[in-house]
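To: structure subgroup
Subject: Chain for Friday's discussion

All,

I'm putting the inputs and outputs inline so they're searchable in the archive.
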Amino acid sequence: MTVDFFHAHQDTLEQALKAIQTREYWTPFPEMPSPRVYGEDAAAQGQATFEAYQNSTFPLELDGATQYVGQERSPYGFDLKVRYPALDAQTLIDQSSLALDSWREAGPKAWVGVCLEALHRLNKQSFTIANAVQHTSGQAFMMAFQAGGPHAQDRGLEAVTYAWQEMSRIPALANWVKPQGKHDPIDMQKQFTVVPRGIGLVIGCSTFPTWNSYPGLFASLATGNTVIVKPHPGAILPLAITVKILREVLVEAGFNPNVVLLAAHDADSELAQQLSMHPEVKIIDYTGSSATGNYLEQHARQALVYTEKAGVNQIIIDSAPDIKAVARNLAFSFALYSGQMCTAPQNIYVPKDGIQTDEGHLSFDEVCAALGQAVERLCSTPERAVEITGALQNDATAARIQQAKALGLEVIVDSQPLAHPVYPEARTATPLLLKTEATNPQIMQEWFGPIIFVVATDSTEHSIQLAGETVREHGALTLSAYTTDAATATKVRKMAERSGVSLSLNLTGAVFINQTAAYSDFHGPGANPAANAALSASAYVSNRFRVVQTRWHTEQSL
């Protein structure tokens, strides 16, 4: 390695190792876009850099690129007009395979060092990335900064940390001496070499282009694999910036930059299919629909396939010590990024006979009213509300809201557009809350977007049973429950453990069911159909490499 990036960032790595053991709060990447942290000019420079990318060819040199693609349109109402170099599937594979040779030989310290330096530089570009995420995903700026920048970087570092932890357990050399009684002991030397599986493919999504891509990207790189990054055609820019920075670090470290490649394409391309089925692709990280995720799991048999797919996230309301606080927390959860999160709640189970609260017994309709009023208050001031809801990433989500309205269910709160004070063409929507029965088959599918069903159940026991069956059959990334009864809380927790879903109990403060924290929360337990892996857990990274041994008798001279 031309530059010792590992030593430069070793202290950060050591702190990260402690964090994943204690699972206490820690981060090296501040989540607030403060000038005191990122510099007085960071925001302006980030905005300027983002604007410079527009209406131009992205500054990324890919060998042999003769075609350029790019059709990104901001959910806030304008075309980005960025053009990206494009390569065909076989060229990408060939270049990645060639780069793998020297990268494989470099070893874990080099792999991890490059990743650590790249994450450090990505953090310095958080404002640029935030603008890119905002205007491809539709997230509001603050969320785009946090989730697209520092939080995504945290998830990347978390993956690198687990990779180092697992690889560093393996000694490079061992002296193996086995007693043989009266005979001389067997004396052998053994060498253990960590070897990557090969080429990794990261298939990004349009809603969280960096947050969902960084774990797989950095898990594969840190374990010695090369990576082809294939962004969603509607959200190329955030990952193009990422690839650019990674390639710069690779060159400075003395490696072929094609260790990381960008596979940009337009919406009508078959590039993703061609890459994912290629025999040389050994690892696939995918975020997106259940249909595609299931297909990859079943048919990409040459590769390890890690998927995060659709699910039906649920909330059980049994009782509430503070119904207003519960309603405020849930209203924010409904509205956050207009429900375009794999963790966003959809089905809210409330006993048809009502619940006990600090305001006395409330009927089912009164609970619905409390939730509806909280949503209306949250969205009553459009210029403030849009900083929570952001914009709808695509027209399909907007159409899905209309489809939900057409179900003929009683409306608690109707979804309405919000007037954006800066982007008048922004595609916005407030949450849609609908009443329904537990027998309605529509609640057994994911309605991606700001669509919430308040479901009348026979009892809390029925709610728990329904939630567990839904998780096991359809998958879920989050489950939440509100109860003042310890026995009920235990029943819900045991159901969550049996069903394989993460549980949040009685959240009323500044933490919401949608959110997960790096170094602490396991995002996606990998125990139900919504995801087959927990991002950044040791199991998520340790299968990306193998150990090959060489052994010989000590007395032999090699």
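Points worth raising on Friday:
Residues 7 and 158 are 18 Å apart (CA to CA).
The mean pLDDT is 97.

D.
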